[in-house]
Write a structure and sequence with these properties.
The structure is a homotetramer. Chain A is mostly helical. The first copy, chain A, has 10 helices and 1 strand. Chain A folds into 2 domains: 47 residues, Homeodomain-like (Arc Repressor Mutant, subunit A, Orthogonal Bundle); 151 residues, Tetracycline Repressor, domain 2 (Orthogonal Bundle), CATH 1.10.357.10. The termini of chain A are far apart. Chains in contact: A-B, A-C, B-D, C-D. Chain B binds a DNA duplex through helix 1, helix 2 and helix 3.
Chain lengths: 235, 235, 235, 235
DNA sequence: GATGAATGAGTATTCATTCAT
DNA sequence: GATGAATGAATACTCATTCAT
């Protein structure tokens, strides 16, 4: 999907890299099927390696989820960039929203990572950063064309995706495509042609706040992963 | 304790009912604060009863969550009914959406129940049924007045609530009120005044499907816990 | 040994108390045989209960060790008090040192608790406090009689015990009684009759420092046991 | 790497010896800081080699610790010999006791090896043997001068060191120098000038017994790791 | 020879649920 | 009926040791 596979900083031995890929693939499978509650033992079994191997590549469960997230964000970023090619600004934005929602709708693990997982670290921030310019450009262009309301911000886009992902998760067993209905609703809301009922009452989340949101979510509670000093205050 | 004194069944039931209420109240508190991950021991402690008592009243954790859900749905239904009093049809609908979203935004447990919990039984279906007429009436009236697009269905309303709840959960630590921004967007989408960008592409979830959705969600999935027999042979 | 069994603050149900005692006895056995590295599963198995039961009574492994320590300290305190009965001040001190070293020499678990375990909490401090008066009185009396050098402090006594325990641990398999040789040496060092080679070069550990020592030892690293706030400082 | 070029065995051994030294140095560092619980990966990383290389040079962790012990015993032996230079016999003995205790006090790993580690092989016995003559000579000379009690044996000296090491380990975080206090006490006990309270009650450990002690200590106990076969039958 | 990847039994701890008192 | 004691499978993660590259 995202062609040039982002290799882990230092090049791994060929077999190690193969295992790394196996693990990521297994994690994708297992998380997609069972959600993030799946055990790493399960992932390891699926990958045909020992748990130790999983832990050698990813310091903990959250990191594995992050890596997956990271990889998928690349795919989303690529989508955002591909969408720019679209001649019509509105069509470009819609195309991005639709394709990325399709991606979210078809991958339970990704959905859950998006909804719950996150990392106090740079990877996710980086990932977000990688997406942001493309999204901003899509949005600005549509706003410049007068096709999208001016009070919409770039950070609204991922949140809208998030809402659609929530619907997809909710109805996944019964009507996996029903999120399209709400995407259509949302698109109507984004149009600028009509006078909005009222100015949007809350400022958008700033990029900083987006990071904080991620850091405040469950999987992030990751205790100081590597030799961090821990001070304990008794209640 | 009062073993020898056999009180009439009625009275006992009254006593039991008091316990049941205590437990529900405690569960509300505890789940609201900590989400559904709170332990039943915690709930029991809050309620001032033993865990055993909780299990006497509710067959398992999911059922307790269901009962809570059930209760809150009553509150939502009441809200929907109160909203009818509003003279303006649009204002009535908005009032309902806003107040119920406020309720969801302030109660983590309820949010999680809405998002994940459910149990395939009649209680939840009944609960939904209780809400439906009021919601339908709110919606129909606003549609009749031409204030809301005609292709909106009654089942869309809870799903919109659900989307807002997802946002509230997501941003709870950082911007607990940001859901209002997306409510405003949604309201613009609901207005009928403007020509919709396109007809809504997916039919709404039917009431039956809403029930199925609940039945398909995590807390229900509880398969007979994996009880694998393990035989250990020493060398 | 220490007659009136110190009951856990709140009275336990009879069966629960029985289990508690079983667990303590099993822990004593197992720790004595294998040292503190024994697993709690092992202790539970020895006690004929499930691990969960052990965890119900003792929040973690260290607490179990503490409880044991606590119990034994009672026995030591009793010894110190019994020793007071001895008419001769020197004989009293020697009797205490000897009997308590015997106790340490015969119980590997106790030795290891003394050497490594400890608790950031009050139990151990309390335990120490329980012993201190008796030890101080034994020592002061012998010093008043001119039988023990004046520069010896009450906190030196437990440390001397500790040194003997270390020897006992070291030689346990080969010459379990050899500690007596070093006790005799030590006793000679304690005598005041002769002019000391030089004043003792380091001040004794103050009672406060004794507590700190315990708190700084491995088993204490016990992370905030119950809902303590944890602040994590990245390196 | 240099596969095709077959260097003479000697050269390889030289290279290997350099690695061996690196590993020992790294182990010294790491064990000194963190004690024997440090992982071999850590040691290897510090040494700038792979774990495999460590295993090529030392059959297991215990052997590495042994080798270190071995090396340090050399340093101790050197100390003992240097101490002989001291003109006064008592001063020579004190100098040795003090300097070797200082060494133990400043090296956690060495302390732990002394206290716990050992391996039933010849190396450690040899090491002990290397020290013995110097210690015996120091002691005999002081006894001949009438400065040290006659019933003291050469094997008492390492045990006294051991006791001081135990104190140093115990109080390391709070009062790292407090062992000097107990050294001073011990020195008073060693003096022959005064009539001993009583003859020492246990014979000293014989050199043979010293070896047995080492062989009986924890790191050796390593039983064939419990490898229990586990068969899991799903219901 | 050197490397570091792979292994997997082992550990402390949690929590839904059952059952004796 | 109520209580809370008991249970034990399950989970994330570690590390000594082996082995393919």
């Amino acid at each position: 999907m995202n062609g040039s596979q982002q290799p882990p900083a230092r090049l791994l031995r060929k077999d190690a890299e193969r295992n790394r890929q196996r693990i990521l693939a297994a994690a994708a499978d297992v998380f997609t099927e069972q959600g993030l509650d799946a055990t790493l033992d399960d992932v390891a079994r699926h990958a045909g390696v020992g748990v130790g191997t999983v832990y050698r590549r990813f310091p903990d469960k959250a990191s594995l989820a992050d890596a997956l997230f990271d990889e998928r964000i690349d795919a989303l970023a690529a989508m955002a960039e591909r969408a720019q090619a679209e001649p019509d600004a509105w069509a470009a934005l819609v195309s991005f929203l639709e394709h990325s929602a399709e991606m979210l709708a078809s991958d339970r693990g990704l959905r859950q990572i998006l909804m719950f997982a996150a990392q106090g670290h740079d990877r996710v921030a980086c990932a977000r950063d990688r997406m942001r310019p493309a999204i901003e450009s899509l949005l600005k262009r549509a706003q410049a064309d007068g096709q999208v309301r001016a009070d919409l911000a770039a950070t609204d886009i991922p949140i809208i995706e998030f809402m659609l992902a929530a619907v997809a998760e909710y109805a996944r067993q019964v009507r996996p495509a029903v999120w399209r209905r709400y995407l259509a609703l949302m698109l109507d809301a984004l149009r600028a042609a009509h006078p909005p009922g009222s100015p949007l009452p809350e400022p958008e989340l700033s990029p900083d706040e987006m990071v904080q949101v991620l850091n405040s979510n469950p999987l992030s509670r990751r205790q100081a992963p590597h030799k961090a000093a821990t001070i304990t205050v008794r209640p």
